[in-house]
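TL;DR need structure tokens for one chain.
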Amino acid sequence: MSAQAPSSVLLIRATRFLPNPATAADNAFQSAAPGGDDAQGAAELSARATMEMDAVAAALRAVGVRVHVFDDADHTRPDSVFPNNWISTHAGGVVGIFPMYASNRRHERRGDVLEMLKSHYRVQTIVDYSGLEPDGIFLEGTGAMVLDNESRVAYVARSHRADAAVLERFCTDFTYEPMVFDAVDAGGVPIYHTNVMACVGTELALFALDLIPDVVRREQVRERLSVHGRAVVELTEEQVREFAGNAVELTGHHPDGRQRRVLAMSERARRSLRSDQVEVIERSCEIVSVDIPTIELAGGSVRCMIAGIHLDPRPGVEPGPSDAVLAINEDNPVTADGRSVS
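>> reply
TL;DR here they are.
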């Protein structure tokens, strides 16, 4: 398994989709839902969003990524399509559960998702930080953090969705080095989630370094990204607003079983890239893009929709008794070498 690019992912199919009014104040990427104020408009919006979610799942499966999809018809969870904010998984069988800023997002956390992970993958420990929410302390998972699993670095743009104290706890518990910086747009508005401006892959990073106003810190981030030879594609603020930074590297498979590294992003993000940027990306990954204009109204894109599964799968269970069980079967007490047990 690739440390950086998981081969399995989790998606939530939110059939009652709506841009979350509780997050609009600090999410500059969010837009009002056209025609979504009445019941018919809301139903049409949800139908379009559901089609887009299904298209993302189909595109990932088409390149050999394993996709687990959970339906969600709860109208009180408008952002449930973005599960990467409340859950992350890590090599060694560790799962992180995170404290969420908006109160109507806190019940996106689902026990059935955790049970699926435990039944299909090797889960050793669940580290739950959600109890910090009553104290006003938040760290919204791999939205607030962009994780370099190869070099063990957590890149984090400061915001009230990424508290420094819980970040330090996370980095201690999960053995990452925190690399924190301020990031603002041209109007001085802080970037609400790091993963809208940055994507770190195995041999490639997409990063809007110019949004870091501190020149010294900007160069430190640039150096840390590229120190092991990783190519850095620098994004403009305009491309960030087109969600070019909201991409994720995954491991797919060809029909014959050979691995293929893919970079999943929206079609809007793909269109914003220059030809020279695409050329650099395609030296490392195949671009898989899906048009999701309705979901992007909520201020997130393809990366926000995907919770990568960095856990070892449980081995498949063979039908019938194993050789060890057959060796002590009282109905036929013969060992594997043909000798009678008695």
